[in-house]
Specification:
The protein folds into two domains: 102 residues, Arc Repressor Mutant, subunit A (Orthogonal Bundle); 280 residues, pyruvate-formate lyase- activating enzyme. With 453 residues, it is α/β, with parallel strands linked by helices. Helix 8 links the parallel strand 8 and strand 9. Helices cover 41% and strands 20% of the residues. The protein has a nine-stranded mixed β-sheet, with helices on both faces. Strands 1-15-14-13 form a four-stranded antiparallel β-sheet, covered by helices on one side. A three-stranded antiparallel β-sheet has the order 16-18-17. The structure holds S-adenosylmethionine. The site of S-adenosylmethionine has 18 residues, from strand 5, strand 7 and strand 8.
Length: 453
């Protein structure tokens, strides 16, 4: 195909699920944004926090960058949990939230989903969890139906904590299970044995106070299709409301990636095998009556809305609290410093600990519409077109790429909609990166043509 799609184009093969591409191209939401210089950040932030909220749904992210163990595959590990450190950290978080509460940026437009992520927020002692949640509810303008998610793991998720979470307003607990196979779990540094995971999940769901979600990963070392199938089966009887199925990413710098590189652990499943795991999940879960609510999220009951994850993909405005927490308010994305000492110094001085700001380009509305649509496996072509700058609209390349996805069996055209097939959903990140790269090239040549002409 003699156009700009080049290597972004899927191969047309008889087996698109396994062979449409040879690599999954990760979505880098910040890569096309211009960094604000370190010296300029305080001025830009001071102006930003005086702005009122934008229209649309809003989110808040609260980062708890502490874990009791560093799981081999995980790229999120920052600090080891310990009661005194967590206690002090929650003091700082509450101070940061209280400071921001009075700002025009926080304002009084409703916040529709709050996510306590990490790290492992369920490592917080019950008392700390309670006072943090109380501050969130007192200081932030939460919508009456606000989804409040607590990320958790089984080890250390005591009855006292579960009660504190639900009493404090948490209505969605997302538990990192990863696998029900004790051998697979232990190999990755997971503490709890499979039987304990099953029992605790049943107890948690038995509270009947909020959505209970389990995260599973596929493509882990020692995991084969049979063990994956047993994992999916195990989820049927636990009373779960939702399930997340993630393909293992071998993240550079993680203990797993280093061990694989040194040959101490065998290379985990490649992309064709991961694709089979994915298709197996789609088949098993849809047959068992689960609804696919995004490429990697499943709902068994109406309690699971997955609001935060869906809205953040569509670029919803996000307030951020805690060391390393990231947020966005058009035209900026921003993040607090991940450095705990710098975080503590800034909060103690009454400053927002923001350390990174980026400005989005003219393609941001298109990117948000694209990512939001791809996430649910459905693109509305008129909506995409409406977000395109004029020069991009006039360029045929983005539509050729979509045609090629249809030709390759990764998508189907239904009137003005494009629906991803199972294979298309597995390769979905490549549609986001491919489409936006083609659009960025079209924008650039439009600019050049304008300058030359
Ligand atoms: C921020 S992590 C929090 C996990 C939680 N603290 C725990 O201990 O289970 C959220 C989810 O991301 C997924 N995840 C983490 N590392 C991953 C990787 N390398 N590849 C794919 N998914 C990953 C896992 O399913 C995990 O439950």
């Amino acid at each position: 195909m003699n156009d700009r799609t080049g290597s972004l184009t899927p191969a047309v093969t008889s087996d698109p699920l396994r062979y449409a591409f040879t690599a999954r191209r990760p979505v880098m939401p910040r890569q096309d944004k211009q960094a604000v210089s370190e010296t300029e950040i305080p001025r830009r932030w001071a102006a930003l926090e005086q702005q009122s909220p934008a229209a649309g749904k809003r989110l808040a992210y609260i980062n708890i960058p502490f874990c009791r163990a560093n799981c081999l595959y995980c790229g999120f590990y920052r600090h080891r949990s310990g009661a005194p450190r967590l206690n002090r950290y929650v003091d700082l978080l509450i101070e940061e939230i209280r400071r921001d509460a009075a700002l025009p940026l926080v304002g009084d437009r409703p916040i529709h989903a709050v996510y306590l992520g990490g790290g492992t927020p369920s490592d917080l002692p019950a008392g700390d969890l309670q006072r943090l949640l109380a501050a969130v509810r007192e200081c932030l303008p939460l919508a009456a139906d606000c989804e409040i998610t607590l990320e958790a793991r089984i080890a250390g998720l005591t009855e006292e904590k579960i009660r504190a979470a639900f009493a404090g307003g948490v209505n969605r607990i997302s538990v990192g299970v990863q696998s029900f196979d004790t051998r697979v779990r232990r190999r990755q540094g997971r503490v709890a044995a499979a039987q304990e995971v099953v029992e605790r999940l049943v107890l948690l769901a038995g509270h009947d106070q909020g959505a209970v979600i389990a995260d599973l990963m596929f493509g882990l070392p020692d995991q084969d299709l049979a063990s994956w199938h047993r994992d999916l089966d195990s989820c049927q009887e636990l009373g779960l409301d939702g399930l997340d199925t993630y393909a293992l990413k071998l993240i550079p710098g993680t203990p797993l990636q280093k061990l694989v590189e040194r040959g101490c652990i065998e290379q985990p499943a490649g992309l064709p095998e991961q694709a089979e795991f994915y298709a197996e999940a789609v088949e098993a879960l849809s047959t068992a009556g689960w609804r696919q609510i995004s490429n990697s999220h499943w709902a068994r009951t109406p309690r699971e809305r997955n609001l935060y994850n869906l809205l953040i993909k569509s670029g919803a405005e996000t307030l951020a609290f805690g060391a390393g927490a990231g947020g966005s308010r058009e035209p900026y994305t921003f993040a607090n410093t991940p450095d705990m000492e710098a975080y503590e110094r800034a909060v103690a001085a009454g400053d927002k600990p923001v350390a990174m700001m980026r400005v989005s380009d003219a393609l941001q509305p298109l990117r948000d519409t694209l990512m939001g649509g791809v996430e649910i496996g459905r693109l509305e072509l008129p909506a995409l077109r409406a977000c395109m700058p004029m020069s991009v609209q006039a360029d045929p390349s983005p539509w050729r790429l979509v045609d090629r996805w249809v030709e390759a069996g990764l998508a189907e055209r239904r009137g003005e909609q494009i629906h991803l097939t199972v294979a298309g959903r597995f390769w979905a990140p490549n549609l986001v990166t491919g489409f936006q790269e083609v659009c960025a090239q079209a924008l650039e040549s439009g600019r050049k043509a304008h300058a030359d002409g």
